[in-house]
Amino acid sequence: MKTKADFPNINDRQPEGLKDDGNPFRVLIIDDSMFVTKQINQILTSEGFEIVGSANNGESGVEKYKELYPNIDLVTMDITMPKMDGVECLEKIIEFDKDAKVIMISALGKQDLVKKSLLIGAKNYIVKPLDRNKVLERVVTTLKKQ
Amino acid sequence: MRVEYINPFVEAAFSILKEVLGDDLSRGELYLKATSQPILGVTAIVGLAGDVEGRVLIDLTEKTAMKIASAMNGEEMTTLNELAKATITELANMITAQAVTKLSELGFTFDLTPPTIITGEKMEITNYEVEALIVPIETSHGKLEINVALRERN
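^ inputs. structure came back:
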């Protein structure tokens, strides 16, 4: 006969968005698409992450990062944006904080820009379309990287 | 217009729609239009300029656009609001970006414009110097047409 131990309580799992001290990881979303911003927001908040800000172009993305620093753990960064694109925005954020953890969000076909971003200092990238598992896996891996 | 230009867009549309809608899709018969043609009501247009030039439309009815946007957002949308338009824009973005990768592998280089969404009834699009190839794709949310008018730059 099966006992309670055969049915582990799935709710015992610690949400991925919480640090060891129980506080949430804080994320800034820089993306000009309302749809993508909402998608990332939904995926991350459902796992306990806190979205501390969002920006819809690179220029205000840099400003937001500086404003939030040091109370920020991660940035998700679109590549194609008006005013200042994601690569330049990344450059400026890394100039300001060389340890910044930035994940590039890219459509397929932008491999050159993704490579360039990784050389500049982006820690990871995600190719769209986004889905929950893909986003969480990359975000968690990136936060664990020192 | 060479058929090899449209195939990357159709393949990309299939793979992206399958991924975002988790859907069974079927491809309709390819057809060609030389002059004016009606467009369905919600149209994402992306321009290409480089070794090949022209435009690509992702064309659907307002009803289908709302159903696809609802499915992609996981919430019911009853009007074609800003979020619904941003969703269709993103869909066009993903399809064209993936298609471009395939066209680049064929040796073509060119730039893309960001997608623009046009909405309205009884609209037509006219191409004088290049005919358009159209491939309808049936999804469980309705029909979507990939409409490509491209030519090689001499």
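The two ends of chain B are 14 Å apart (CA to CA). Strands of chain B lie at 26-27, 31-33, 36-39, 42-50, 52-60, 110-112, 116-119, 123-126, 132-139, 142-152.
thumbs up if we can close this ticket
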